[in-house]
Design a protein that fits this description.
The structure is a homodimer. In chain A, the strands form 2 sheets. In chain A, strands 3-2-1-7-8-9-10 form a 7-stranded parallel sheet, sandwiched between helices. A 3-stranded antiparallel sheet of chain A has the order 5-4-6. Chain A has 14 helices and 10 strands. In chain A, helix 1 packs across helix 14. In chain A, strand 1, helix 1 and strand 2 form a beta-alpha-beta unit. The first copy, chain A, is α/β, with parallel strands linked by helices. Chains A, B: Keywords: Cytoplasm.
């Protein structure tokens, strides 16, 4: 039990991919920090954001649940979604707690910290910004689609995404975490609506490009209709570079085993196909490629295997 | 630190009077149990009751807050009331937590127990029933007024109150607590809408009449418009007897100091006046009278003094 500083690992993301990564990482001897998007606007989260002018709490809620060591019943309460009650239906208890704690403490980030303390969260959870924001996309055909949840529904080729109001202020702790990280992991997830909304924020983009840490992108395993149809792994990275420049991603983690026919059939119904890992192009782009069998084969909904991916990411840390 | 059994004190009530009593009692070396009304229907509580078919959580919430040893910020969160948000405005966080925990555990009482555990509640909190119910009043003029919050608004003389559906099933633990109590305290509060809705429930009425414990009624200090206008202390007890018989109240606690002119003026605006303690009539009714200076003089809203009343009630316990 030395007093040595543990390596700092920063994970950036949102949606469903990020919690999977965090569940495995939280048990490792690292100083773990999650930087989480607050730009979503669907369902309960969107209603709270609009009615209460707070940053979107939904992705934060899922990260809290992933990093919490609280007993199962408390987490069930936290993740409970009201299904009855005219006015409450669709609201998640955790979102309401985050909204109420924001009122009580006067500050979204402080509210997150207090809820995290009560739920015995391991690691730090930073909203990428303490402000309410909205996401917009400029499509390849020049049209603009406003609202995170509307972007994939438009089913057009996305050229770029941007945030309003401009400039969005990042949480200073989030910038600082990137600057002092030993490893930065860009989580898998919806590229334009969960991942990039973090990376395009002023100061966050610069910090990602300037950090000395290895910035590792865990690439999606399947394409996503309305966002990344037909994208190869290199196309994913290229989309990020198009937004914030060449220097931001150093390495890409790719899954190196075939996806089962059954799973492909399930995803085909959503117009999603396996991401092709065009390693030659990735190498040409100057990226380090990290391959592994990192998928949980027990599920029909494809998810990274929490333990496998955590172990792989941990192996990337320079522990000198 | 012996292993002797502590005396069992059961407090019955609801509204704002009950938490005042409980705050003082919780620090005494007693086994404390609160039996709480679930018949109210105003505001957040009423909406949740109607929309989710659960017993009214509002009075339970205030009792949890009174008996909790949780840190102040958590209690502030628990008692937080949303003031913005179209769909949430007026809802109290604690009510929402109780409603959600009822869904998670499948049972209102189990939900209360789990929330109580999280908030480090001292003593037992039993809803008087695990069922949703509604309160109705038959007025002296023969009209029926339905709904707890409507009864005082009708501003008529109440003849009797009753519950629907009939028969309401009491919580078995509540009946059991009365049967095994060493002291039973009927809390001050709205006579017809907070106190009697507990006492008139089948089995609760019988248990109160048959218990060997001293049943002590802490009489209101001021009358309440639409409920007890012009009532003396004996009228309060008589109203209880009219509902559940002669044997239910053994003693009456009355405040024996005058109410200041300033406070009387404030209450006069609500058509409330000091309750006259007609001790001769109380004695004629066979009641033991316990007098004390039990009011908190520091407030314009009259409240019993938490510590004084707790001390007085504790002195009534036969500690053999």
């Amino acid at each position: 039990m030395g007093s040595e500083k543990q390596p700092s690992v920063v994970v950036i993301g949102g949606g469903t991919g990020m919690p999977v990564l965090l569940r495995g990482l939280k048990n490792l001897p690292i100083d773990l920090t999650a930087l989480v998007t607050v730009a979503d606007d669907g369902g309960s989260t969107g209603r709270l954001r609009d009615e209460m002018s707070i940053p979107a709490p939904g992705d934060i809620r899922n990260v809290i649940a992933a990093l919490s060591d609280a007993e199962p019943m408390l987490l069930e309460l936290f993740q409970h979604r009201f299904t009855v009650g005219n006015s409450l239906s669709g609201h998640s208890m955790g979102n309401l707690l985050l909204a109420a704690m924001t009122s009580v403490t006067g500050n979204f980030f402080t509210g997150i910290q207090e809820i995290s303390r009560v739920l015995n969260v391991k690691g730090n959870i930073y909203p990428i910004s303490n402000e309410s924001m909205s996401l917009h996309a400029e499509m390849a055909d020049g049209t603009i689609v406003s609202g995170e949840s509307n972007i994939p529904l438009a089913n057009k080729k996305v050229e770029r995404v941007y945030l309003r109001p401009q400039p969005v202020q990042p949480l200073p702790d989030a910038v600082n975490a990137i600057q002092h990280a030993d490893l930065i992991v860009v989580a898998p997830g919806s590229l334009y609506t969960s991942i990039l909304p973090n990376m395009i924020i002023p100061q966050i983009d610069v910090a990602l490009s300037n950090t000395k840490a290895n910035v590792v992108y865990v690439c999606n395993v399947m394409t996503q209709a309305g966002e990344t149809t037909g994208y190869t792994a290199a196309d994913h990275v290229q989309a990020i570079r198009r937004h914030i420049g060449e220097a931001c991603i150093d390495s890409v983690v790719v899954h190196n085993e075939p996806i089962s026919k059954h799973v492909r059939q399930v995803y085909a119904e959503e117009n999603a196909t396996p991401v092709i890992y065009d390693t030659d192009r990735l190498l040409e782009m100057g990226l380090q490629i990290i391959e592994g069998d990192i998928i949980d084969p027990s599920r029909t909904t494809l998810r990274h295997d929490t333990q496998k991916i955590a172990k792989l990411l941990y192996s990337l840390i320079d522990k000198e």
